[in-house]
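User: Please predict the structure of the protein below. I'd like the answer in structure-token form so I can feed it into my own downstream comparison script.

Assistant: Understood. Taking the following sequence of 394 residues as input:
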Amino acid sequence: MGLTSRSLLYTVVFVAVLCVGLTVWLWPRLSGRGALPVLGRLGAILTTQLTIMSAILLAVNSANSFYGSWGQLIGKYDRAPGQITRGVEAGADPAVDPGKHGKGGVVRLSGPEGAPKTGLPKGPKEEVGTVESVRLTAPRANVAEPALVYLPPQYFQKQYERQRFPVIIAISGYPGGFDNLSQYLRLPKTAGELVSGNRMRPTVIVMVRPTIASPRDTECVDVPKGPQAETYFTKDLPEILKSAYRVGHQPSAWAAMGYSSGGTCALELAMRHPEVYPVAGALSADYKINNDLTTGDLFGGGEDGERRKREHNLIWRLKNMPVPQATVLVTSSEKGEKNYKETLKFLKAVKEPMRADKMILPEGSHNFTTWRREVAPALEWMSKQMTFPQDVNN
């Protein structure tokens, strides 16, 4: 039986219940003194605890797809990069250094927040690039959000001083922090290697989290009378970055990407606001947003609330609303990912003028080992969809 199969889960649950029953029934017989009764009691306790914990861990893994197979559980992973193919054919903070304020609502941080784990080699910025730790002050959404900004070496080179760079907004999953994009997904390191190997155009990458009201999961949604996450991503963030950095001012230089709920956010942004993010790369995304214990009520009540919820269902949008002029990449795994069937439904629903490509692994789980296989091909793919350079006079 497969690690994520229902049969295995139900079998282990049955064994756990059986062990509890046998322990209760046999306990009076194991109540005597001596080595054997003591060993019997210890054995019953250990067996019961083991089966109960196994059932719980299997249920958690089944719900979240952390490990898709027994091989992955013991560390046997295929680490080869994924292959992209066409989809179904279209029809004020204590860590702030007051001397390091930037333009447009960007505050560069010092202290522990100013030293992110990037994986970049040591050296001059014009040779290896750099990652800045910043806080972005957003007037419309009324928040100050932390972020990491990867600047490629070309950003500091004289021959590029009059050029604006494409920018990718990279969004982490929830509840993981934006620093996971650097530390575990290895985004700056991967981008640096791709740029130095001429497999990706020099690109600014801004690493953020999907929520603007932590610990609540705002899912890139404008909540009625609540956090305005969609406004933050589509109005505040582009305005701040265009003012503070030499990034493209035309939509053709902008894209969003993310993993897990960050991938869902990237897709939502591209399909709801293609005039801001016409390109999206979504690793292990869902295709709709639902209320749960972490989100609270995202849409409000009544008919307006139901309408807002429907409009965040991307397959529903493709079937019932004008199709956006967006280009997206979606990823999944035939074995080990819960979103595989929904990914196929999404691809089938795509029609012109939208375009969708896919990266489907034979096997993979909902974890960083899988996403690291996908991130380099995804960055290469996204780079080909974006315009570079744009002159600073534009």
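That's the full token string. The first strand starts at residue 85 and ends at 86.
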